[in-house]
Every structure is written in structure tokens, then in C-alpha cells.
Specification:
Elements (H helix, E strand, L loop, with lengths): L1 E6 H16 L7 H15 L4 E7 L6 H4 L11 H4 L2 H10 L3 E5 L4 H13 L6 E5 L14 E5 L4 E3 L1 H8 L6 H8 L14 H11 L7 H4 L3 H11 L23 H7 L3 H14 L2
Parallel strand pairs: 1-2, 1-4, 2-3, 4-5
Antiparallel strand pairs: 5-6
Helix pairs in contact: 1-2, 2-5, 2-13, 8-9, 8-11, 12-13
Length: 277
């Protein structure tokens, strides 16, 4: 079986702003939510059977205590922010495993889910649907891959190395050196992508760098690596069968009505009926 792990926060942003371009700023109350649900249904229609969606229930995490400039919920459009919790509730009603994260981030949930799923011999491949750079650290060969929906591209370990110049295991070190503007930390001044890759391929992880390579900047680099390293210990589920989609719950009809999207329920029921044949 294949396991599909979806970055619900990214998908919500993607659909919200994609829809806004067509509505000319007249936001629909649940437009982003409907878009994400349509994406999940489409995955089911194409044959996905095991799906989990991670969301940032609370934007801030433990990383904000480590670095004051780390990303927060400040500046998020109120119309978008108001759709986070409805998305989580609607996904659960649709029968999809959803993980609203509080102390950790959605990326940590995806990393944890990939780790748990990888322990099952029944799992042929784990697909992490996100564009976030830090999830590249979870890629393992061609069994755990990152699916970049924006570029319509799958990244296995070879593709990660070709893109960043380092193996997946060194992605936290790479991001620590070059920084990640999306997450709000700058990296080490004067070290770009090419230099970072060269240093890491020569010396290995930052912890094994000779003392004179980073000098006084070593401590900050290790802090940024802590920010970039995903937590894989969240106990999200015990068995991969917990991720099997078995159809919408009875509560989903009310959600489809509330979202003014009756076709969502129809499509879910059609997929469910097809799976039972």
C-alpha cells in the first residue's frame, strides 16, 4: 500500500490565495476549505486509500521560544485564519485522519507520520505532499518521497541531492547554513547554497565541522539546525490501518451543506461505493 501524508496548512494557503485571484478579493467564507477537501477527494478518486492530513492548529510552536524571529501567525489574513479550524473539523467529518498540531508544527506531524508508517512492511511507499524544504530531510531512497504539487514533481533521495547538493539527512544542516526565509531564520552570513553543500559534503554534519570553519558562528548554526530539524516522535497513530479512508461520517452531510458544496458528499459516497465492490 501507499501512504499519502498531506500538508493541510500549505494546501489551505494554496487554495485560499488561488481562489482569491478569481474572486477579486471577495473571499468566500469557506473557499479554501472546499478547495482542500476537493484535493483530498481527487486523491481518493485516483486510488489513494490511506491518507493523513497535518495542520497548524496553532501557528506558534516550541521553536518560537528558541528564536524570536521564527514565524508566527502575525500577518495572516483574517479570512484565511478563520478557515483553519473549520478545515480540521470538515476533514474529520469526511473520515480523513487529521492531526491539528499545537506544540509541534504540521511539518513535525508529517515527519512523525512518515516515521511511524515506514516501520510497517506492508507499506510500499510514503508520499509527503508539501513544498516545504525541511521535509526533504525525511526522504529515504524511493520509499519515502516528497511530492511537490506546485512543480508537479516527485523528489526521491537522488532528486533531493540533485536539487540541494546534499543527501536528505543533511537537509537540517543545509538549511541552518543558508537559512529559511519562510520559517524566519537567516542562516549564516556569507554562506550560500553552493558553499553550504561543499562544506557539508566535505565535513559532514555541523557538529563534526573543524572548530575554525565556523568559529564563533558555530553556536548560532547549531541553533538554526535545531529549528530546521523536524520532530519525529509525535504519537499520531499506532497502525497504518488507522489511515485507511472508510468513507465519510454521518456528520459530513451537514458540513457539505454548510460549505455549499453538495458535490463533495456525492463524490465521497461514489468512491466509497466503488471501493466496496
Amino acid at each position: 500500500m501507499d501512504i499519502h501524508l498531506v500538508d493541510g496548512t500549505y494546501e489551505l494557503f494554496r487554495h485560499f490565495y488561488g481562489l482569491r485571484r478569481f474572486t477579486k478579493g471577495k473571499d468566500r467564507p469557506f473557499g479554501g476549505v472546499v478547495g482542500v477537501l476537493q484535493t483530498i477527494v481527487q486523491m481518493l478518486e485516483k486510488g489513494a486509500t490511506h491518507i493523513g492530513v497535518a495542520t497548524d492548529h496553532v501557528i506558534e510552536s516550541f521553536r518560537n521560544e528558541l528564536w524570536p524571529g521564527y514565524k508566527t501567525g502575525e500577518g495572516i489574513d483574517p479570512a484565511l485564519s478563520a478557515q483553519f479550524h473549520p478545515l480540521e473539523e470538515a476533514l474529520a467529518a469526511m473520515g480523513v485522519a487529521v492531526w491539528p498540531m499545537v506544540e509541534l508544527e504540521a511539518d513535525d506531524a508529517l515527519a512523525s507520520a512518515a516515521t511511524i508508517a515506514s516501520r510497517s512492511r506492508r507499506v510500499a511507499r510514503i508520499c509527503i505532499w508539501t513544498v516545504d524544504k525541511d521535509l526533504a530531510q525525511c526522504v529515504r531512497g524511493d520509499r519515502i518521497v516528497q511530492m511537490d504539487r506546485r512543480a508537479n514533481r516527485m523528489l526521491d533521495a537522488d532528486a533531493v541531492r540533485a536539487k540541494y547538493g546534499v543527501a536528505p539527512a543533511l537537509i537540517p544542516d543545509y538549511l541552518a547554513l543558508v537559512g529559511d526565509a519562510a520559517d524566519g531564520y537567516p542562516g549564516i552570513a556569507g554562506i550560500g547554497a553552493v558553499t553550504a553543500a561543499r562544506m557539508l559534503n566535505r565535513y559532514g554534519p555541523i557538529e563534526t565541522f573543524p572548530d575554525d570553519v565556523l568559529g564563533a558562528r558555530r553556536k548560532q548554526a547549531l541553533l538554526f539546525k535545531r529549528l530546521a530539524t523536524l520532530d519525529t516522535g509525535a504519537a499520531l497513530f499506532r497502525d497504518v490501518d488507522d489511515l485507511r479512508w472508510r468513507g465519510p461520517t454521518t456528520a459530513f452531510k451537514a458540513w457539505a451543506d454548510r460549505l455549499a458544496a453538495p458535490r463533495l458528499l456525492e463524490r465521497c459516497l461514489k468512491v466509497q461505493a466503488s471501493a466496496q465492490r
